[in-house]
């Protein structure tokens, strides 16, 4: 296989243009080119509004050695693609694995175990994704919250109601990243996600993909129990023996995967009571900012709308004078700010996009890192309580609605009265409030400094009518469930997994961690067989 890097073409190019460029670089005819695949596509916008795609291609050709010798190009080389493989065993297992949670970590762990020949049981406190969608939309329309099935809980996890970003910074030498993307394509995602620099799916696409994945797992012998919450864990001699669900039913298992998500606060409390080793960890809190999408497009593309490209994104960071870091997080081009609450009388926001990224506004969380040293006390769950207090205050400020404020008024520490030229794109009710009273002043100062610094990068970023809303408090898990190199807790048979356990940060990294845990379970089964 031949790899070709740095193939550059205008964004308006055709598939035929790309193939002709491959043949020209390799100095071959059509008959010598057996097949070719795009491995990576990125955008070069350095000469905007002249925009280019830059490709990495893998091509199968005749007489590869002779071609490589002839072209003598540092961007053309021989390559052997990494292929992900699944461990399998024909041995019977005494008890089926139980996976708690059906977000990306839980679903991809279940998928791995299915490929390996096991038949896991997946329990989910929320609803199946199609029913969950209706419940969440009812909440946005009426304010009636289902504390067990919402933006945070339910099949597909919190990432279902997000931008559906699939890029990750996790280093990957085993092919797990590409395998995750291939699985998404298998269940309905567009093939373009396999090579795009910043692939995304959108909430509407994720719903169908998650449902298809569930049906595949069920058809292969897996089982799903929805509206089923783990309420107790039975441990003997530091080994898991069973769990109780919904306070009444006992399920025996010696293999328990905790893919519980970053908002399962009652489960975190249960794990603390069961003396499962956990650590408080850093996360980040802040506010959502809405800007016109045309403003972001102009900055990135040199024009307010591109004929060939979708809504533009951005990524910004700033180190403040007080040594706090401010950065953009979960940026949603053409998206919506959504009420992402999961507890009564507490309010959290998140960002979400549909696949077309078609709303008028770009939104992103602008967040400040907080560490366990910022939380009073020494309790392992003190970060969780810090989140709760912020969410209680946000609920009070908005009288149950999303509290929002224009940036100019935030700086002047006064409640907004009217909107400027930017109107909110939100799911759920909203009300004007003074968000300056929500966060500790040290964090407010950092946010203002960060937003003013971002203005130097993106003109208009600090405009007075920028809409801020809060609180963005669910950026990542406030705890880490300790696991060893075999991905197992000190309590044997328990496998902390994914973002809620503190080992991932987004859909793809959580799915990759699900594959890792599935592999770890199989290694243990094979070694003990």
Total strand segments: 24
Overall outline: globular
Uncertain ranges: none
End-to-end distance, in Å?
38 Å
Query: Describe the biggest sheet?
Result: 7 strands, mixed
Averaging pLDDT over every residue, what do you get? 95
Q: Which class of secondary structure composition applies to the elements?
A: alpha/beta
Strand residue percentage: 25-35%
Q: What is the percent of helical residues?
A: 25-40%
Q: Determine the number of helices (DSSP H or I, runs of at least 4 residues).
A: 12
User: What does the radius of gyration come to?
Assistant: 24 Å
Strand order of the largest sheet: 14-15-18-13-22-19-21
**Oligomer class:** single chain
Provide an overview of this structure.
It contains twelve helices and 24 strands. The chain is α/β, with parallel strands linked by helices and 529 residues long. The model has no long low-confidence stretch (mean pLDDT 95). The strands form six sheets. Strands 14-15-18-13-22-19-21 form a seven-stranded mixed sheet. A five-stranded parallel sheet has the order 7-6-5-11-24, with helices on one face. Strands 2-3-1-4 form a four-stranded antiparallel sheet, with helices on one face. It has helices at 15-26, 64-71, 104-115, 129-142, 176-186, 203-219, 265-273, 293-301, 382-397, 407-412, 441-455, 507-528; strands at 2-10, 33-47, 50-61, 76-78, 98-100, 121-123, 223-225, 230-236, 239-245, 249-252, 256-258, 278-280, 283-292, 317-319, 325-332, 336-339, 349-352, 361-370, 402-406, 426-427, 430-432, 467-472, 479-481, 494-496. Helix 3 (104-115) links the parallel strand 5 (98-100) and strand 6. 45% of the residues are buried. The two termini are 38 Å apart. The radius of gyration is 24 Å and the shape is globular.
């Amino acid at each position: 296989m031949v790899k070709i890097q740095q193939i550059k073409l205008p964004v308006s190019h055709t598939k035929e243009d790309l193939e002709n460029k491959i043949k020209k670089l390799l100095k071959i005819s059509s008959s010598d080119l057996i097949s070719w695949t795009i491995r990576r596509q990125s955008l070069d916008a350095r000469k905007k509004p002249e925009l280019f795609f830059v490709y990495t291609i893998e091509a199968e050709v005749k007489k590869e050695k002779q071609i490589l010798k002839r072209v003598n190009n540092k961007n053309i080389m021989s390559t052997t693609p990494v292929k992900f493989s699944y461990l399998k065993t024909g041995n019977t297992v005494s008890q089926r694995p139980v996976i708690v949670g059906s977000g990306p970590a839980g679903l991809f762990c279940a998928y791995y175990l299915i490929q390996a020949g096991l038949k896991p049981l997946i329990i989910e406190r929320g609803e199946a994704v199609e029913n969950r969608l209706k419940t969440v939309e009812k909440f946005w329309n009426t304010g009636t919250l289902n504390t067990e099935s919402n933006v945070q809980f339910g099949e597909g996890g919190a990432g279902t109601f997000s931008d559906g970003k699939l890029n990750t910074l996790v280093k990957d030498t085993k092919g797990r990243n590409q395998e995750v993307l291939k699985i998404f394509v298998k269940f309905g995602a567009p093939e373009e996600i396999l090579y795009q620099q910043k692939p995304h799916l959108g909430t509407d696409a994720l719903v169908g993909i998650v449902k298809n994945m569930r049906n595949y797992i069920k058809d292969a012998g897996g089982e799903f129990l929805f509206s089923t919450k783990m309420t107790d864990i039975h441990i003997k001699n530091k080994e898991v023996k069973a769990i109780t669900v919904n306070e009444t039913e006992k399920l025996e298992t010696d293999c328990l995967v905790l893919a519980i998500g970053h908002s399962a606060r009652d489960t975190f409390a249960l794990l603390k009571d069961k003396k499962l080793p956990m650590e408080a960890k850093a996360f980040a809190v802040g506010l959502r900012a809405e800007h016109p999408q045309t403003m972001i497009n102009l900055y990135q593309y040199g024009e307010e709308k591109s004929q060939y490209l979708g809504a533009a994104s951005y990524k910004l960071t700033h180190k403040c004078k007080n040594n706090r870091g401010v950065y953009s997080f979960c940026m949603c081009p053409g998206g919506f700010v959504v009420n992402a609450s999961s507890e009564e009388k507490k309010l959290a926001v998140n960002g979400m996009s549909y696949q077309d990224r078609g709303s008028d506004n770009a939104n992103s969380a602008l967040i400040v890192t907080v560490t366990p040293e910022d939380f009073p006390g020494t309790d392992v769950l003190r970060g969780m309580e810090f989140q709760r207090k912020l969410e209680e205050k946000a609920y009070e400020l908005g009288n149950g609605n999303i509290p929002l404020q224009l940036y100019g008024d935030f700086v002047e520490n006064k409640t907004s009265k009217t909107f400027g030229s930017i109107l909110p794109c939100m799911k759920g009710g909203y009300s004007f409030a003074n968000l300056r009273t929500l966060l500790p002043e040290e964090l407010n100062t950092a946010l203002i400094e960060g937003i003013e610094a971002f203005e130097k990068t993106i003109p208009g970023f600090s405009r007075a009518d920028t809409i801020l809303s809060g609180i963005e408090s669910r950026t990542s898990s406030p705890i880490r469930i300790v696991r060893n190199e075999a991905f197992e807790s000190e309590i044997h048979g328990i496998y902390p997994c994914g973002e809620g356990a503190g080992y991932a940060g987004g859909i793809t990294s959580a799915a990759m961690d699900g594959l890792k845990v599935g592999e770890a379970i199989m290694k243990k089964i094979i070694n003990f067989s």
